Amino acid sequence: MGITKTDFMRGMQCPKMLWLDKHRPKLKVIPPEIQERLDAGNAFGDRAMGMFGPYEEMTVFRPGTTVPDKAAMVRRTQEHLEAGTPVICEAAFMDYNNYCAADILRRTDRGYDLYEVKNAPEVRPQFVRDAAFQYYIIRRCHVKLGRVFLVLHNEDESDPFRTVDITAEVRPLYKWINDNIWELNRLQKQREELMTKPGAQCTEPYACWYYAYCHGGQEPGGETRTL
Questions:
Q1: Which string of DSSP letters, residue by residue, matches 155-173?
Q2: Contact, 113 vs 149, CB < 8 A?
Q3: Could you give the CA distance from residue 133 to residue 46 in angstroms, rounded to a whole number?
Q4: Torsions phi, psi for 12 (to 5 deg)
Q5: Residue 217 forms part of a structural domain
Q6: Helices marked H in 49-124 — which ranges?
Q7: Is pLDDT above 80 for 152?
Q8: 89-138: per-residue pLDDT in tens?
Q9: Structural domain tally of the chain?
Q10: Is the separation of the CB atoms in 21 and 30 below 8 Å?
Q11: 50-70: per-residue pLDDT in tens?
């Protein structure tokens, strides 16, 4: 089944969140204000693709859908890496079915630098962990990486992109990623629902889409769920 970057981040916030994603996704409720922030983040990411000039985007969809074709994206990325494409966006990598798509790879004399785009004004711990997951997968795919950056949102819209070098924070997390990714792989395949008590993880660092379900809210069909 494998773990994606999103799976990892959600699973590390709460393993039950990851389990529900895989087994009972219809229970999720995304509030309109959260969806607006997600859409704004996607739009900011699209803008950032051109911050270094011309680029090649790796996104490929399955025929007739808006579902990314991960295998095709991985193959396309490999072709552009071998060709030495200067700027690659949504560069896709897979290692033992664990997957990530990097926002921006920029070629340097050291190989490629990695840029993770966040529609936020400052560095947050979860952003570093997000980038560290990508660093882990890409390194395991034998790509030579130099530095790792966050691209943040400047207040000045005439110059909206601000880069912060987080290489020193990312590299030590390699072992932490490796220690946890295989356990999350195991947990998401578990048949029995994980019975995790509600707590701080329900809202930090992100509000959980299953909050109502885990807090005695109504399931689809009107049945009340109580943990």
A1: S-TTS-EEEEE-HHHHGGG
A2: yes
A3: 21
A4: -75, -25
A5: no
A6: 70-83
A7: yes
A8: 999 999 999 999 999 999 999 899 999 999 999 999 999 999 999 999 99
A9: 1
A10: no
A11: 999 999 999 999 999 999 999
Is residue 208 in a domain? no
Does 206 reside within a domain? no
Q: Which domain, by its residues, includes 42?
A: 37-192
Contact (Cβ atoms closer than 8 angstroms) between residue 58 and residue 101: yes
DSSP state of 68: B
E-strand ranges in 59-160 read 87-95, 98-108, 111-117, 145-153
Q: Is residue 95 part of a domain?
A: yes
State mean pLDDT over 157-183.
97
For residue 205, cis peptide bond before it (omega within 30 degrees of 0)? yes
Report d(CA 69, CA 192) in Å as an integer. 29
At which residue do the structure tokens 């060709």 appear? Answer: 83
Nearest to 93 by CA among 193, 18, 5, 181: 5
Interatomic CA distance for residues 6 and 163, integer angstroms? 22
How high is the pLDDT of residue 223? Answer: 44
CB 164 within 8 A of CB 102: no
Contacts of 10 (CB under 8 A, 6+ apart): 17, 18, 21
